[in-house]
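Hi all, posting the design record for the shared folder.

TITLE: backbone redesign
STEP: 1 of 1
STRUCTURE INPUT:
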């Protein structure tokens, strides 16, 4: 805790320098590092404490928060709209099919309760998502990155607006989806590195094991040893589709560059992951992130800051929700 607090203090003291470092992102967003330094100076420490406590008992929280962040920002912007529960008159994003397995909202609620007690009506749920996600990444071994804050929460959440790139997308289709959110091909490959932690359900790669492209055989791009290992978890019967396997077959709970190393060994679980090594626009990036002296950690932080600027609400827009799952 002391080390984290010291790091935060240093970042705030050097906020002018950080503004230059994130000039590209800041030029498109009024967010700023240390936004709550005066209005709620304990906010980041409280969120960190809640995240650390959760990670100590549930190391899947890193993947859970990353998924919440991605599913939030890619719909109508980073506004915590995917935390809102449905009502009798509205089906919210949370009940859209891709969001049914989101994990980690309990941590967001815990952190929100802590900052509400310290500073009522000041810290947004959207900022808590971004800060807690960063803290979980760092706790799992990733590099620290400063998170610009100042987001406000949306008052709108519609299940019909959820249209996310999925594991069955080709590299080209996924790149197009990312580009539509202002993210380039390097950002995409970097953010997919979040698969260095987390799991996938058998249903999302079942065809690669038993009937790849209708051939009745396994995907030849998948290492034979991995095919056999996955078949033991995902048997050739519909009853096994709900089972899960780690996306990173190396160090599943550590936030490192193992994901890219696994791709180079043909051990990518999802088809889109493995295809990154074959596409001429992405293979070089995978190779650089997998190699010695990889800058993946630094690049990931930069990509998260960039993604965190998508469609943000600021100023008098939206609101600061008192409870993250409910519109005020």
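Okay, here is what came back for every position:
SEQUENCE:
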């Amino acid at each position: 805790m002391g080390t984290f607090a010291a790091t935060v203090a240093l970042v705030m003291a050097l906020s002018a320098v950080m503004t230059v470092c994130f000039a590209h992102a800041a030029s498109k967003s009024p967010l700023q590092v240390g936004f709550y330094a005066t209005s709620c100076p304990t906010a980041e420490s409280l969120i960190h404490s809640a995240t650390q406590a959760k990670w100590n008992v549930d190391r899947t929280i890193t993947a859970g928060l990353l998924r919440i962040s991605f599913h939030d920002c890619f719909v109508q912007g980073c506004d915590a709209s995917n935390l809102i529960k449905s009502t009798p008159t509205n089906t919210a994003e949370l009940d859209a099919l891709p969001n049914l397995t989101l994990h980690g909202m309990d941590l967001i609620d815990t952190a929100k309760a802590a900052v509400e007690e310290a500073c009522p009506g000041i810290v947004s749920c959207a900022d808590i998502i971004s800060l807690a996600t960063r803290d979980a990444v760092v706790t799992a071994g990733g590099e620290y990155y400063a998170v610009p804050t100042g987001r406000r929460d949306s008052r709108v959440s519609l299940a019909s607006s959820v249209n996310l790139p999925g594991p069955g997308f080709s590299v080209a289709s996924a790149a197009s989806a990312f580009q539509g959110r202002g993210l380039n091909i390097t950002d995409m490959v970097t953010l997919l590195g979040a698969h260095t932690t987390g799991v996938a359900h058998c249903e999302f790669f079942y065809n690669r094991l038993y009937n790849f492209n209708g051939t009745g055989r396994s995907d030849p791009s998948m290492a034979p040893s991995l095919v056999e290992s996955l078949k033991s978890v995902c048997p050739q019967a519909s009853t096994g589709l709900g089972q899960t396997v780690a996306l990173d077959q190396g160090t599943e709970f550590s936030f490192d560059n193992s994901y890219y190393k696994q791709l180079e060994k043909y051990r990518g679980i999802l088809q889109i992951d493995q295809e990154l090594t074959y596409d001429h626009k992405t293979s070089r990036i995978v190779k650089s992130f997998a190699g010695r002296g990889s800058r993946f950690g630094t690049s990931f932080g930069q990509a998260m800051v960039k993604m965190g600027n998508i469609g943000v609400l600021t100023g008098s827009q939206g609101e600061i929700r008192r409870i993250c799952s409910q519109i005020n």
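COMMENT: The radius of gyration is 20 Å.
Let me know if anyone wants the other runs.
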